[in-house]
Design brief:
alpha/beta, TIM Barrel, 8-stranded parallel β-barrel, two-stranded antiparallel sheet
């Protein structure tokens, strides 16, 4: 069963500017009939463990589950030791437990485009992530939290398979349906291959925008702009069908990653409402 939710990233700039609070986000998520909220720990960095438990209690009152996102594990190519990443995971686990999250999403410390043509450095990063996951696995198991590595356009499908296999335990993938386009990959084969390893993930949409020369005679290139589901050109009907087949009836938490947000625009309800309705029609 695919559970649909919203990520606090949808409100990122409004949260950063103090225009809304996490409590406001929970209220809006409830109005949107979300099943859960994916909480980025960056957005609760000023709250202690007691404050996180209070936030979790409020979510429970609203009938919302909270899932937690950590951040970058570190950069092996720049000299970070696995202990750096393990220490970060341990700190995030304490906060994940306080929020009642059964999973902790983490990410590597690079984007593949940054290391194109340097396969030896990509392998350094892959081994670094494996070492961190192995080193943090005992603490995660003790906390009852599953470590999920997101696919933010860093590793290939085969590299992800090897990463999860070598890390062992109950580690898995946090599957973003759209991120492969940032590495100029077709998202569909990625979703087909990684969905069986995933328990949660992100969904968004995108459009292409031309960057014309000053006289408009030709274009210098193009940009990829993220949008809310249903606002762009992604074939989400096909991708959601592949996700449904890949999770094979298991519970899967899919949150809207609304990266196209602004500090001065209170448009989350207006845009997330249609986005979630669209996704519900595809998730059924």
């Amino acid at each position: 069963m695919i559970r649909l939710g919203v990520d606090t990233l949808c409100w990122h700039l409004r949260l950063e500017h103090g225009a809304v609070t996490l409590e406001d986000v929970l209220e809006q998520a409830r109005r949107l009939d979300s099943d859960f909220v994916q909480v980025n720990l960056h957005h609760v960095r000023d709250r202690d463990v007691g404050g996180l438990r209070t936030l979790a209690a409020r979510a429970d009152e609203l009938g919302l589950r909270l899932l937690v996102s950590g951040d970058f594990l570190g950069e092996g190519r720049n000299g970070d030791s696995p202990e750096v990443g393990i220490g970060r995971v341990h700190a995030w686990l304490e906060r994940a437990v306080a929020l009642g999250s059964p999973v902790l999403r983490v990410v590597s410390g690079f984007y593949r485009a940054e290391l194109m043509g340097q396969p030896e450095l990509i392998e350094v990063e892959r081994r670094y992530v494996v070492s961190v996951l192995r080193g943090a696995l005992a603490a995660a198991d003790a906390a009852g939290v599953v470590l999920l590595v997101e696919n933010p356009s860093d590793f290939t499908v085969n590299e992800y398979r090897s990463l999860v296999a070598e890390a062992g335990g109950s580690t898995g993938v946090f599957l973003d349906l759209i991120n492969p386009i940032a590495a100029l990959d077709d998202p569909l084969p990625v979703v087909v291959a990684l969905a069986p390893l995933a328990r949660a993930g992100h969904v968004k949409d995108y459009v292409f925008e031309s960057i014309p020369t000053d006289d408009g005679y030709h274009r210098r290139g193009f940009a990829v702009r993220y949008r809310y589901p249903g606002e762009g050109v992604a074939d989400l009907t096909v991708l959601m069908a592949a996700l449904r087949e890949g999770v094979a009836g298991r519970e899967f938490h899919l949150s809207v990653e609304g990266l196209d947000n602004y500090a001065d625009r209170d448009d989350q309800i207006e845009r997330l409402g249609p986005a979630l309705e669209f996704l519900r029609s595809l998730a059924a």
